[in-house]
């Protein structure tokens, strides 16, 4: 176990591979060419780094036509990478907050397949206050009121529970230092908000745009002022 941990830590610790892993937190698959641009390296060098990450089962690859697309091999890897960002000194983060305007990524972003940033944390806090979800010994559970709320919102909780992954869990937000919702339920909520045009993805970024409709609905449903 110790040897495997050292191997994984060494793999992720390389600056180029760290850039690859950070980019893949977008939740979308990328080609080697796209990842080479993100990591500011050559196609030959990116191929070597991707090979090492594939060998360690940190990434998976899917071929479509002439292109190969890379993504995390499972969602738990995304949570681990996002969690590593919490090792950044809180003092450093708070100093930047006091001197810089909140960046789009810190304001509202995807954390792989769910909502994070200031808006993600505010959404989670509102759900806790409304008893849609409850905090039980530092873990999240859905309430009976929550099952009805999600049903009214157009999400079948029973169907979501059938997915082969964690249903609901807290995820520490690296920019806010507070928990936001993660798991298949949070992923379904983000998908619904995107489908209903409350939110829109941005190109080549994890930042999420909140539409005019989204501003109204977030305030109506969760008392969130954007």
UniProtKB/TrEMBL annotation:
<dbReference type="InterPro" id="IPR036388">
    <property type="entry name" value="WH-like_DNA-bd_sf"/>
</dbReference>
<dbReference type="GO" id="GO:0097063">
    <property type="term" value="F:cadmium ion sensor activity"/>
</dbReference>
<dbReference type="InterPro" id="IPR052543">
    <property type="entry name" value="HTH_Metal-responsive_Reg"/>
</dbReference>
<feature type="domain" description="HTH arsR-type">
    <location>
        <begin position="1"/>
        <end position="92"/>
    </location>
</feature>
<protein>
    <submittedName>
        <fullName>Helix-turn-helix domain-containing protein</fullName>
    </submittedName>
</protein>
<dbReference type="GO" id="GO:0003700">
    <property type="term" value="F:DNA-binding transcription factor activity"/>
</dbReference>
<dbReference type="Pfam" id="PF12840">
    <property type="entry name" value="HTH_20"/>
</dbReference>
<dbReference type="InterPro" id="IPR036390">
    <property type="entry name" value="WH_DNA-bd_sf"/>
</dbReference>
<dbReference type="InterPro" id="IPR011991">
    <property type="entry name" value="ArsR-like_HTH"/>
</dbReference>
<dbReference type="GO" id="GO:0003677">
    <property type="term" value="F:DNA binding"/>
</dbReference>
<dbReference type="GO" id="GO:0010288">
    <property type="term" value="P:response to lead ion"/>
</dbReference>
<dbReference type="GO" id="GO:0046686">
    <property type="term" value="P:response to cadmium ion"/>
</dbReference>
<dbReference type="GO" id="GO:0032791">
    <property type="term" value="F:lead ion binding"/>
</dbReference>
<dbReference type="InterPro" id="IPR001845">
    <property type="entry name" value="HTH_ArsR_DNA-bd_dom"/>
</dbReference>
